[in-house]
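Reply to thread "Modeling small-molecule complexes from scratch"

Following up on the discussion above, here's a worked example others can learn from. I took a protein sequence and the SMILES for pyridoxal-5'-phosphate and predicted the complex. Inputs first:
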Amino acid sequence: MNLPHSQPVADFSDYRDDFPALQQSVNGQPLVYLDSAASAQQPNAVIEAVASYQREDHANVHRGVHTLSHRATESYEGARDKLCNFINASSRAEIVLTSGTTESINLVAQSFCRPVLKPGDQILITWLEHHSNIVPWQLVCEQTGAELIVAPINDRGEVELDALYELMTERVKLLGIGHVSNALGSINPLRDIIGHAKQAGITVLVDGAQGVPHMSVDVQSLGCDFYAFSGHKMFGPTGTGILWGREQLLEAMPPYQGGGDMILEVSFEQTVFNELPYKFEAGTPNISGVIGLGAAVDYLSGIGMDSVLEHEKSLHAYMVTQLAAIEGIRLVGTAENQASVQSFLLNDIHPHDLGTILDHQGVAIRTGHHCAMPLMQRFGLPGTARASLGLYNDRDDIDRLTGALEKARQVFA
Amino acid sequence: MNLPHSQPVADFSDYRDDFPALQQSVNGQPLVYLDSAASAQQPNAVIEAVASYQREDHANVHRGVHTLSHRATESYEGARDKLCNFINASSRAEIVLTSGTTESINLVAQSFCRPVLKPGDQILITWLEHHSNIVPWQLVCEQTGAELIVAPINDRGEVELDALYELMTERVKLLGIGHVSNALGSINPLRDIIGHAKQAGITVLVDGAQGVPHMSVDVQSLGCDFYAFSGHKMFGPTGTGILWGREQLLEAMPPYQGGGDMILEVSFEQTVFNELPYKFEAGTPNISGVIGLGAAVDYLSGIGMDSVLEHEKSLHAYMVTQLAAIEGIRLVGTAENQASVQSFLLNDIHPHDLGTILDHQGVAIRTGHHCAMPLMQRFGLPGTARASLGLYNDRDDIDRLTGALEKARQVFA
Amino acid sequence: MNAAADNQDLQELYRELILDHARKPRNFGRLDAATHSAEGINPLCGDKLRLYLRIDSNDRIAGVSFEGSGCAISLASASLLTEAVSNLPVADADACFSTVTRRLTRQPENPAATTTANLSKLKALDGVRDHPSRIKCATLAWHALHAALHQQSQATTE
Amino acid sequence: MNAAADNQDLQELYRELILDHARKPRNFGRLDAATHSAEGINPLCGDKLRLYLRIDSNDRIAGVSFEGSGCAISLASASLLTEAVSNLPVADADACFSTVTRRLTRQPENPAATTTANLSKLKALDGVRDHPSRIKCATLAWHALHAALHQQSQATTE
Ligand SMILES: Cc1ncc(COP(=O)(O)O)c(C=O)c1O
Ligand SMILES: Cc1ncc(COP(=O)(O)O)c(C=O)c1O
C-alpha cells in the first residue's frame, strides 16, 4: 500500500512576513513583487546572518590562526557543506563557489572546454537559453574554432526533443541546457535529455539558475556533469554562485584564475595547485555573501522545496487562469510543464509601457528581452512582460497584477 | 608663500567606535585586531548600507523599469561614481567592477595579455609580489609561451631599482607591481618605476590591494595603465573589487566573461558587446557588496586619506620602536618607506605558535607566508608573524601586542 | 486619455499627444537618398531605432525619417523629433539635441545652444522627468540624431 | 613552562613534552634505504614535512624518520609519531593513525582500529583539541604516515 505523497500545503503567508522588502509601499501602494526570476528578496534570517557576521566574526578565511579567522572559516566552509547537502552532491570537493551562474558557466567554458575544443567540434544549446548560457560558448567557440549549434523549440516554448536528440552526434562535446527557462518558465525534461546525452557520450552542463530556487534538486539523480546556479535567485546575497561538477572532471581541469588560496605552493619555477574545490577559488572569496547563502539554504530547507514547488505550481495555475481572462492578453510560453514564471503581452502595448503603468500601481514586473534575445527573435517579439513568482507570493498578488493590467488596457484604449 | 600642508591629526579614537567588531572580547580580552592587511573590519555605516539596501531597495540592476530596480541601479552605479572620484579616474567607463584584486589581475592577464603574448615576450614582476600578482602571469605565460621574469629585492625588502630598470627591455609587454607589499609593508616608489616603464614602452599594472586602504591614490597622476584593488581591504564588503584601466586599453580588449549585461545584442550569428565598463561585467553583479563599498568610500572620504596615512605612519613608527625593544625580536622588512604593516620573528618560535599565543591574549595577527611564498623563500623563512594596521588601531593596540609577545617569549623560554 | 488612469503622474506621462504619435509615428520608414544615419539602442528595454537624414548642400536637413521598434515614449519622441528638425540648419538641429536632452534630464540650459525650432510640442515629453527609468526612452532618438549629425554609426543610452 | 604563561589553556597546549620534542625532534633526517615516504603539507601555515619508512619483509616498520619544518605542534607530533610507530606491524601503525586522528578531532573511536602501540605520550597533544585552528598541525605527520603506508606521495590537511 502506498502512502499518499501529497502533504497539506504549508501556510505560505507566514513566510511572506519574513521578507522586510515586501512590507513596503511603492508609489503609494503595497508592493507586489513579481520579479523574483531577476532577483529574489531576502528573508530577515539572511540579512541578519550577513550583518552579524560582519559585526562579530569577520576576518579573512583559510589562513589565519586567530579566533575571528577561525570563526569566519568555519562559517564559510559550513555554508559549503549546507550547499553540498542541499543539492545532494557526493562531496564538498565538488562545490566550487563562484560569483554567480554566469561565472560558473564561464569557468566550464574556459577550463573544461577551451583546452580540448578543436575546429569541427560542437557545443549544443537550445533556443531557450539565457545569454549566460549562450555567450560563454560563443566566446570559447571563437577562441577554438568550434561551432555552436542550437536545438529548436516549439511555439509553446518547449525544446523539440527529437530535433535535440538528432543533434547529439559525436561531434558534440558539451550540451548546455537550462533547468527552467527564465523567460518562459518551461521546465525541461532533464532526466530524458541527460539520458540521451549520456548515451551519446556528451558532457552535460545544466544552467540551474531558475531551478534551485523553485524545486528540490538532486544533482546525482539528475545525472548531469555540471550544475550552475546563483545565490541571489534563491533568496541569498548577490555576488555568490555555485558550480557543482563531478569530482573526476573538476580534478582533470586546469584552474580558471590564479591567485591566493588556489595554490599549495608557489615558486617562480613551479606552482602546485590546491586540492578541490580550492583549485578553482582564487583570491579572497565573498565570505559574507556565502555565509548569507548558507542561511538561505537553511531557510529553504526549513520550508521544504517540495512544498515550495507545490505552492508555486498552484499559484502559477491561478495566474494563468486570471491572466487569460483579460481582454487582449497573449500568453507567451505555454509549456505543459511550467512553473513560477509567466510571460505575456497585452494588446499592442509595448512591454516597457506596461511595466511603467504597473509600477505606478505598486506592481513590480520585468519587461524586455529577459537576457534571452534569440528566444524573443524566435517569437518575433522585441520583448515581453514577465511576472515571476517566489515562495512569498500569493493570490492577492495575482489579483493586484490583473487589476493593474486592466488599468493599463484602459490607458491605452 | 606656501601654506603649511600638515593638518592637525584627527582624533582617530572616535573612528574606532564606528567598528562593532572591535568592541568585542576574544578569549577573555578586549580584541586587538592587527590583521587588516588580510581583511579590514567594517564600520557600521557599511554594514547598515548593505542591510538597509536588502531590506528596502533590492532588485536586479540595469534592466528593470520598476521602482526597486531603478533604486538598485542608482545606488549601484552611484557607488561606481564614488569609486571613480576616489581614485580620480577620468571616466566612470574606466571603473570595472570585479570580485576582487585577484579577478581584476586575472582579467588583465587573460584579456589584455593572452591575445597578444608570444613566445619570447616577457612579463615582469618583482620578488615582493602577492600570489595574486604572480600566478595569473604564470598561467598566461604557460598558455602563450611567454616568460615571467622577476626583479630582485634587497634585504630591507625594497625593489632593487637598477636591476628592475635593466630588465625593462622591449621584450617586456607588461610590468605587474604592487603598490605596497602586504608581507613587508614596503611602499614602492611608483612614480619613478612607472616613469621608467613608460619610457621603455611597457604597460604597467599596479596591484593596489594594499595601497588604496592606506593612502590617497590618484591613478591619473600615477601614470600607470591598470590599477587593481579589493573592497574588503578598504573597509567594504568581500566579493567586491575594482579594475581601473585606461579607457583606450579597455576599449581594445576582448571581453573576459560572457553573459547577461555585458552585451548589447545577442544572436546566434553575431553578438555585440556592450560599452565600457559593462563589457567586462557579465552576469548579475554583487549589488549589495558594491553599494556597501560605496558607503566605505564615503566613510574614508569623510576622514581623508592623507590623515589616514599620517595616522598610520606615526603608529607604524611607534610599533617599530616598541617591537625593537623586545629581546630576541627580528624585524623582517625594514624598507625606508613603509607603513601599516610589520613582519617579524621572535627567537626561534615558529610564527604559527606565536599567532596562537597572541590569540590567547586577544591579539589577532597573521602568521605564515602571507600569500607571498617566493618572498619568504628569498628571506629563507617558512613565514613570519605580521601585525598590520587599519585606521582604527592605536598605541594601546601596539602595547597589547608587545605585552603579548613578552609572554610568548617566556612560554618558549 | 481614459478616465481610468486616475493617476496624475501617469496622465502626465501618457498624454494624448504621446499616445497619438506612438500609434501613428510620423515620417516612419527608410529615407530615400539619406546622407546621414545612425542607430540608437537602449539596452535597458531593447528599443532600437534608426534615424535617417538627408542634408543638403546648404547644411540644411532636407529630409528626415526613422524606423525601428520601441515603447510608446521612444516612438513618440522619435516621431516628434522628425517634425521638429525637418528643414532646420544642421547647427540648429544640434542645438535642439542639446536643449531637449538637457530639459529631459533636468540640466540647466546651455546658453550656447540656441535654436529657431519650435519645440513646444516636445513639452509633451516632460512627464518622463518623473520616471527616471524612462528618460532614456525619451532621449534615444535624440542621441541617434546627435550621432548621425556627427557621423557616428551608433548611440546607446547606457 | 614559565609561570608567565598564566593561561591554563596555553599550558595545556604547550606542555613541556611538546616543547621538548619540538626543540629536539627525535628521528629527524632522511632515512637510509627508506621503502616508503610521503610528504605532508599544511597550506594553512606552510608546515611541510616528509616522513620516511623502511618496511621490512615481515611488514614491520623497521625504520622511521622525518624531516621538514613546522610549528612546535607539528614537529612535536611528528617526533612523537616516529617513536610510537617504530617497530610496529604496518596494520598496527595504520590503526595508530586512526586512533590518534580520531582522538584529536574528537571523533568516536573506531573499534576496528586496535593497536598494541603505546600511545600514552601522545596524550600530550590533546591540548590542541581546544584550538581548532591547530588540530591540523597535530595531525599532519599522521596523515603523511597514512599516505606513506598507502603509497600516496602527498597528504594535505585542507
Ligand atoms: C598585495 C596584495 N595583492 C593582492 C591581494 C589579493 O586580494 P584579494 O584576495 O582580495 O583578491 C592581496 C590580499 O590578499 C594583497 O595583499
Ligand atoms: C536561466 C538563467 N541563467 C543564467 C542566469 C544568470 O545568472 P547570474 O546573473 O546570477 O549570473 C539567469 C539570471 O539572470 C537565469 O535566469
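What I'd highlight from this example: Confidence is low (pLDDT under 50) at residues 1-5 of chain D. The pocket of pyridoxal-5'-phosphate (ligand 2) is lined by residues A 37, 100-102, 130, 132-133, 178, 182, 207, 209-210, 230, 232, 371; B 260, 283-284 (CB under 6 Å). Questions welcome below.
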